DNA sequence: TTAATATATGAACAGATATTCATATGAAAG
DNA sequence: CTTTCATATGAATATCTGTTCATATATTAA
């Protein structure tokens, strides 16, 4: 442990202003959800239209099972919602934060 | 492979409108960087002030080595920049996109 | 009831990733 | 030049994560 602390006052001041570990952890968790190709594809597809599982599998060139697993993760994270109609389950984005986050991420990538 | 495609026209239309796999991959990569507690802590600390490695280790309750590894990742992703002054290396956020992304992520978390 | 279809789920496996530890590099001080 | 200090880095390890495969559930049709 290199406990040097070159700028003690500054470092302590910053440490006091830090958000709680819990909040920072939760924020990281949200970004983690966006940090996977398959899930980002799902999110972008759902940004265009409400879709069912097999449509998403077709659109993302993935398997039904893989998509279903990822949709569960997205749903637990409250990023997507679903409605059931007979055998078919339709998924859509839960709110505008999801779209906002996606768009700013895209902006960032395209400006490099 | 369950090639059912319940809504063929819609699914094909959406598939055509999809961004390229490469762009979606890159977007996921950016979010992946934000998707780690240690890196989020670093980003938030740097949002408050330019800091050196050992300050960051102190602030995040982490080791010098762990922070240094993460800073390399953040730098490769062009999210932070550094300047050297003697033995000390000072890190800071590269641009406003980083702060924007962080803030919208935080908004999302706090509205759940 | 039985068959067919859409989705969900559990276990297993492979690949990715963060931390630790030891050590290297590079710069200033003595 | 040697020592000290701040940072960087490589290897090893343990953990996490996404996909696959097989199968379960649930709903509709026959």
Which helices and strands appear, and what pairs or packs with what?
2 copies of one chain form a homodimer.
Chain A (H helix, E strand, L loop, with lengths): L7 H10 L3 H14 L2 H12 L2 E2 H7 L4 H13 L3 E6 L2 E6 L2 H15 L2
Antiparallel strand pairs in A: 1-3, 2-3
Helix pairs in contact in A: 4-5
Chain A binds a DNA duplex (30 and 30 nucleotides) through helix 5.
Plain-language structure description:
The structure is a homodimer of 112-residue chains. Chain A is of the alpha+beta class and 112 residues long. Chain A has a single domain (21-110), classed as Arc Repressor Mutant, subunit A, CATH 1.10.10. In chain A, 63% of the residues lie in helices and 12% in strands. Chain A contains 6 helices and 3 strands, in the order αααβααββα. Chain A has helices at 8-17, 21-34, 37-48, 53-59, 64-76, 96-110; strands spanning 51-52, 80-85, 88-93. A 3-stranded antiparallel β-sheet of chain A has the order 1-3-2. In chain A, strand 2 and strand 3 form a beta hairpin. The radius of gyration of chain A is 19 Å and the shape is elongated. The first copy, chain A, binds a DNA duplex (30 and 30 nucleotides) through residues 2, 4, 6, 36, 38, 52-54, 62-72, 84, 86-89.
Query: How many runs of DSSP E, i.e. beta strands of chain A?
Result: 3
Q: What sequence of helices (H) and strands (E) makes up the elements of chain A?
A: HHHEHHEEH
Question: What sort of overall outline of chain A do the alpha carbons produce when their principal axes are compared?
Answer: elongated
Known CATH architecture of chain A: Orthogonal Bundle
Count of individual helical segments of chain A: 6
Counted up, domains of chain A total: 1
Largest interface by residue count? A-B, 62 and 62 residues
Judged by helices, strands and strand pairing, the structural class of chain A is alpha+beta
Q: Mean pLDDT of chain A, nearest integer?
A: 94
What is the subunit arrangement here?
A: homodimer
Strand order within the widest sheet of chain A?
A: 1-3-2
Largest sheet of chain A: 3 strands, antiparallel
CATH-derived topology of chain A: Arc Repressor Mutant, subunit A
Strand content of chain A: 5-15%
CATH superfamily of chain A: Winged helix-like DNA-binding domain superfamily/Winged helix DNA-binding domain
Low-confidence stretches of chain A: none
User: Tell me, what is the CATH class of chain A?
Assistant: Mainly Alpha
C-alpha Rg of chain A (nearest Å): 19 Å
The residue fraction in helices of chain A comes out at 55-70%
User: Roughly how many Å apart are the termini of chain A?
Assistant: 36 Å
């Amino acid at each position: 442990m290199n406990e040097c602390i070159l700028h003690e006052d500054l470092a302590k001041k910053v440490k006091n202003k830090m958000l709680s570990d819990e909040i920072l952890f939760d924020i990281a968790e949200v970004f983690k959800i966006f940090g996977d190709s398959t899930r980002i594809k799902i999110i972008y597809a759902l940004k265009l239209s409400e879709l069912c599982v097999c449509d998403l599998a077709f659109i993302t060139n993935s398997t039904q099972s893989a998509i279903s697993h990822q949709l569960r993760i997205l749903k637990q994270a409250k990023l997507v919602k679903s409605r059931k109609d007979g055998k078919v389950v339709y998924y859509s984005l839960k709110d505008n934060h999801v779209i906002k986050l996606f768009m700013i991420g895209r902006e960032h990538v395209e400006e490099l």
